[in-house]
Design goal:
568 residues, alpha/beta, five-stranded mixed sheet, 22 helices, 15% strand
Length: 568
């Protein structure tokens, strides 16, 4: 069955924004629905082809997404890094099945249930393709680190979307309820949701996603601050604990981690003495004293609308108070009207003001180190440099997490800070093996030999462009995604194929023409595809066809790659 005109238009709009060609109506719809349900739960723009399981060996599922601490995780090394650093884990498994049919099928619900249960089985019976095996490996690493689960066990959300109408048929409701129970009985999850989505609901969610997250609440005993330069408005007052929890809740009942600033990843759990005391307070008749015993929450919003005491906020982040928010979320069933939370609400779209507030309000909390680099003058200069380039070569450097949320910028052209560091270390410094497993060591080298203010900005743009082009080729199917484990080695190999000589001094004038020679290839689709195809073939040969992480992400393999291309 064909999609209706509105859904078809939205799908086409999404493909254009994502820079993806059409792969036929059914597959386009799969990608579109996956984007609609996954995007609200993650911090950054993502190439959703990483989670599409495809046809054949897909265990009856179109997509499998594993979201950890607001990040879409497709690499087990990311879980290992979090475990090694002692970070807690907030995990949501997302399974998606779509059909362009105009009706829902009870037999399809049963197939989805079986596929989900088989995914978590120690002895799976269904055939698995590479994408499913990769997701299962990530899942294994997560469940092996269960001691780090932040808000209890992971959540599991299953979406079954069709192009028809949901009529609430009693048999279908009963079948979905039965499947939800069956999955819940795996005893792996704190919450299981099985959600049918019809065409109208998919459309509504897509429109809501483009508009940005919006929440309303009653702002009690509010006091407005005097006029402050570059701040639209700011207020201080109290919000009820139940209203705050509603702000924190995603559309399908999970904690909406994307509204938190990055320090949400440092939630220390209720075993922490302070958090334990907060939880105990909420569990007794002393809960009314909560605002006297808590420093509260700071929210920065792009847009604030006020009608009396009712406020509506859009494009917002909780930049301070993650411990408070997580404890309230964990104890949300114990809240009543007596629980109030101090709230500081600030409306501004000035990036420097936002970063200053984040830094100041998190002095007592360990905030992820890379986020404070957003304040560096050199990173601001790089952002400005990127903005001056021709529109057909434009990339948008994201100094601050979710900096471009809600903006009309093409998602695939947004370059997060960590991607800039990783691509530069891989392509320019020839250290791709450090881009994943030793990423924190790269941060320690700022600003000595990474993001050094004396470096020519063109070199950073060249490294960013190499990553953009490589991800474009993965996204469009020009490169087999089995090479994704060698992504950062492909960046190095592409540079060695284009410019095999030594890298010039990065603060010299010679660096600019060197970078321009690379850019001339990376921004020429035909030339770039030829270079990366050759790089992939050579790396496949050097690895003997074994592209496993333990084989690829090592110094000896990097040295092998460099020696091969220099000799060639």
């Amino acid at each position: 069955m064909a999609l209706d005109q509105i859904t078809k238009a939205f799908v086409q709009e999404y493909l254009e924004q994502a820079g993806m060609p059409s792969h036929g109506e059914a597959e386009d719809f799969e990608r579109f629905v996956t984007h609609v349900v996954v995007a609200p739960q993650i911090d950054a723009s993502i190439d959703y082809s990483n989670v599409m399981t495809g046809a054949g060996g897909d265990t009856g599922l179109d997509a499998i997404a594993i979201v950890v601490n607001g990040q879409l995780v497709t690499d087990p090394d990311d879980i290992n890094d979090l475990a090694a650093s002692g970070s807690t884990l907030d995990v949501n498994y997302i399974f998606v099945q779509t059909e362009t049919a105009t009706s829902f099928s009870t037999s399809k619900v049963g197939q989805i249930e079986y596929g989900v249960k088989d995914f978590f089985s120690d002895s799976p019976t269904l055939a698995r393709n590479d994408a499913v095996r990769s997701a299962a490996e990530v899942s294994h690493h997560i469940l092996s680190n269960a001691r780090l689960f932040r808000n209890g066990n992971p959540t599991c959300t299953v979406y079954y979307a069709t192009a028809g109408r949901w009529a609430g048929d009693q048999n279908m409701v009963g079948r979905i309820s039965s499947s939800r129970t069956e999955i819940d009985e795996l005893n792996l999850f704190s919450m299981v949701s099985f959600i049918p989505l019809d065409a109208r609901e998919v459309q509504r969610r897509y429109q809501s996603l483009n508009a940005g997250v919006e929440r309303e609440f009653i702002f009690q005993n509010r006091v407005s601050f005097p006029e402050i330069p570059r701040v639209s408005e700011s207020h201080l007052g109290y919000i009820s604990g139940t209203d705050l929890v509603r702000i924190l809740a995603g559309e399908d009942g999970t904690l909406l981690s994307t509204i938190f600033y990055d320090n949400v990843r440092d939630f220390q759990g209720e075993s922490n003495a302070v958090n334990s005391e907060m939880a105990k307070t909420l569990d007794t008749d002393r809960r009314s004293r909560f605002p006297l015993m808590n420093n509260g929450v700071t929210i920065i919003a792009r847009s604030v609308r006020q009608t009396g005491t009712r406020f509506a906020i859009q494009g917002f982040q909780v930049v301070n108070g993650c411990q408070t928010c997580n404890v309230l979320w964990s104890n949300r069933n114990k809240l009543d009207e007596s629980v109030l939370v101090p709230l500081r609400l600030i409306s501004t779209d000035d990036e420097d003001v936002i970063v200053d507030i984040i830094r100041a309000t998190n002095r007592q909390t360990e905030v992820k180190e890379e986020q404070f680099f957003a304040t560096s003058d050199y990173l601001k200069q790089l952002e400005s440099y990127f903005d001056t380039l021709p529109i057909d070569r434009r990339l948008y450097l994201e100094r601050r997490l979710r900096q471009y949320a809600g903006s009309p910028v093409e998602r695939t052209r947004i370059l997060p800070f960590n991607s800039l560091v990783r691509s530069f270390a891989s392509m320019v410094l020839a250290e791709p093996h450090r881009a994943t497993r030793n990423y924190k060591q790269l941060l320690e080298r700022i600003p000595s030999n990474i993001l050094n203010p004396e470096h020519r900005p063109s070199v950073y743009f060249a490294s960013a462009s190499s990553l953009y082009r490589l991800e474009f080729l993965f996204r469009n199917g020009a490169l087999d995604r089995r090479f994704s484990s060698a992504k950062y080695h492909l960046l190095l190999a592409s540079r060695l194929l284009i410019k095999s000589g030594a890298v010039p001094r990065l603060n010299s004038r010679e660096a600019d023409p060197w970078a321009e020679a690379l850019l001339d290839v990376y921004w020429d689709t035909t030339k770039a595809e030829r270079v990366f195809t050759q790089a992939a073939a050579d790396i496949d040969g050097l690895a003997g066809g074994d592209l496993s992480r333990d084989q690829i992400r090592t110094l000896p393999f990097t040295e092998k790659v460099i020696a091969h291309f220099q000799s060639a």
